[in-house]
Specification:
Length: 442
C-alpha cells in the first residue's frame, strides 16, 4: 500500500546513527512511504542529528537550518523532522529554538517514526485500508558492508562523555532481533556485517539469563558462514579469553580488535573514570597476539584532557611510539556541558589541545604506517567494495574496518566478491594488491 509520500534522510555523525537511520527508513518503507535521495524534492526530510560533541552539534544545526531554508519547507509543502541525539540531549529547549521543525524524535522514540510522520501528513491508516504498519518488505540492495547495532546506551559514564545522558542506560538487543536484521541485510546483498554498540563487549550481561558477546559472535558466525563479521568498540574489560577464542576459531570473523584506551596515565584514566594502565594494556595486547599473532589492533586516545600535564602527555607519546597497534584514532578533548569532566579544574587551552592532538596524530601515523608496510608480500582476503570513477576497483581486507582504516586497491574483482590478493605496496593506510585467479574465497 503506497502512501504516495516521499521521505528523505540526512544523517549526521557516526555509524551508530547510520544504523538508526536505516531502521527508521525500513519502518517507513514497510509502511508504504518511498525514500527519496533528493531532500529538496521530498515531502518530509528527517535530519538524524549527532550531538556527541560540540562540533557535531554545530554541524547538525547547520544541516537543520539548510533544510529549513529549502523552498519546499519554507512554502509548507514539505515537513522538517529532527531526530536522534539532539532532541534526546536538549529536549524542549530545541523545540523552542527550531520552530521550523514539525516534529522532534529523540533516539528512544525512533521506532515510532511511522506514526510521527503519518501525523504530519494527517494520514489515517484505517482510510488507507490497513490498520498496522507492517505493509511491505524492503527490496532495495543493501550495501556490501552494513552496520548492525547489538545494543544501545551505556552505563559507564566516562567523565568526558555525553552518551549515557543522550542514549540512556545500556540495553542489549535480543539474539533473534539481531539475527533477523542480519538475515535481511545478507538476503539483500551485504557480505560484511559490522557489529557495533557503545560498549560492544558487554552484550548480553543484562539478560535474565546472561549471555556473552563471544556466544553471540560464535552463533552468528555459524548462522552466516558466507558473511564476514567484524566487531567494533570493545572496551578493554570486554576482551575476554572466550571472545578472543571465538574470533580466532571462526574464519569468517575478522581478526580485528577495536579497543579504545583513551589514555595510558593512571591518574588521567581515573579522572576519566576509566580503568587501566600501561601494564594492563600490554597484558591485554599480548593475550590477543598470543592467540592471533596477526590480529589487527585499533585504539583511540584523547589529547588535552583537563589537567593533563606535558609530562603525562609525553607518557602517552612514549607509549604510542613503542606500541604495536595498526590503527590509532586521536581526538582533542571536547568539553561537554553536563559531563563530570566539564567541571574539572585545569581545562586546557583550545590551541594547546589541538597542538597535542596533532603531535600525537603525526606520531601515530608514522608508527602505524610502518606496521602496515610490513604487510607487503602477504596474501589477504579482500572484500571488493566498489569502483572509483576511473574504473579502479577497491575493497577492504579483514584488517581494514570501514570508514576508518583506508582501503585496498585491486587489479581485478567484482563488487561483493571476496578475493585473495597479494599485497604489493602500501601507502600510509592504503594498500595495493594483485588478485589471484581463484575468486570468492571466504
Ligand atoms: S564507554 Fe565511555 S566513552 Fe564509550 S559511550 Fe560509554 S561513557 Fe561514552
Amino acid at each position: 500500500m503506497e502512501t504516495a509520500r516521499s521521505v528523505s534522510f540526512i544523517t549526521m555523525g557516526c555509524a551508530k546513527n547510520e544504523v538508526d537511520t536505516s531502521r527508521m527508513r525500513s519502518h517507513l518503507i514497510k509502511a508504504g512511504y518511498s525514500i527519496s535521495e533528493d531532500p529538496e524534492a521530498a515531502d518530509a526530510v528527517i535530519v538524524n542529528t549527532c550531538s556527541f560533541i560540540q562540533a557535531a552539534t554545530e554541524e547538525s544545526i547547520e544541516a537543520i537550518l539548510d533544510v529549513a531554508d529549502f523552498d519546499s519547507v519554507r512554502s509548507g509543502r514539505a515537513h522538517l523532522v529532527v531526530s536522534g541525539c539532539m532532541p534526546a540531549r536538549y529536549g524542549d529547549d530545541l523545540a523552542s529554538e527550531i520552530t521550523e521543525a514539525g516534529a522532534f524524535v529523540p533516539c528512544s522514540k525512533e521506532d515510532d517514526i511511522v506514526a510521527i510522520v503519518d501525523d504530519l501528513f494527517d494520514l489515517d491508516r484505517s482510510e488507507l485500508g490497513c490498520s498496522g504498519v507492517e505493509l511491505g518488505r524492503e527490496a532495495d540492495p543493501a550495501p556490501v558492508s552494513s552496520y548492525v547495532k547489538i545494543s544501545d546506551g551505556c552505563n559507564r559514564f566516562c567523565s568526558f562523555c555525553s552518551i549515557p545522558y543522550i542514549r540512556g542506560r545500556y540495553r542489549s538487543f535480543g539474539y533473534d532481533e539481531i539475527e533477523s536484521r542480519i538475515d535481511d541485510l545478507v538476503r539483500r546483498g551485504s557480505r560484511e556485517i559490522v557489529l557495533i554498540a557503545q560498549d560492544t563487549g558487554r552484550w548480553g550481561d543484562d539478560f535474565e539469563e546472561p549471555r556473552t558477546l563471544a556466544q553471540l559472535v560464535g552463533d552468528l558466525a555459524e548462522r552466516f558462514p558466507d558473511t564476514w563479521l567484524r566487531l567494533m568498540y570493545i572496551q578493554p574489560e570486554g576482551v575476554t579469553d572466550e571472545l578472543i577464542e571465538a574470533i580466532a576459531s571462526h574464519d569468517n570473523v575478522c581478526d580485528y580488535f577495536d579497543i579504545p584506551f583513551q589514555h595510558v596515565n593512571p591518574r588521567l584514566l581515573k579522572l576519566m573514570r576509566r580503568k587501566g594502565s600501561i601494564g594492563e594494556f600490554d597484558r591485554l595486547t599480548r593475550r590477543i597476539r598470543a592467540r592471533i599473532p596477526d590480529a589487527a589492533l585499533r585504539t583511540t586516545f584523547i589529547a588535552g584532557f583537563p589537567g593533563e600535564t606535558e609530562e603525562e602527555f609525553e607518557e602517552l607519546l612514549d607509549y604510542v611510539s613503542e606500541c604495536d597497534f595498526d590503527y590509532i584514532g586521536v581526538f582533542p578533548y571536547s568539553r561537554e556541558e553536563g559531563t563530570h569532566a566539564f567541571e574539572l579544574p585545569g581545562q586546557i587551552d583550545e590551541d594547546e589541545k589541538l597542538d597535542r592532538a596533532q603531535r600525537l596524530r603525526e606520531l601515530a601515523d608514522a608508527v602505524c604506517a610502518a606496521r602496515i608496510s610490513e604487510r607487503v608480500g602477504s596474501v589477504r582476503k579482500v572484500l571488493v567494495c566498489g569502483e572509483e570513477d576511473d574504473g579502479q576497483v577497491f575493497g577492504r581486507a579483514m584488517c581494514q574496518a570501514p570508514d576508518v582504516d583506508g582501503v585496498t586497491y585491486l587489479d581485478a574483482g567484482s563488487v561483493g566478491e571476496i578475493v585473495e590478493a597479494l599485497i604489493d605496496e602500501t601507502l600510509l593506510y592504503e594498500m595495493e594488491g594483485s588478485v589471484s585467479p581463484c575468486n570468492d574465497v571466504l
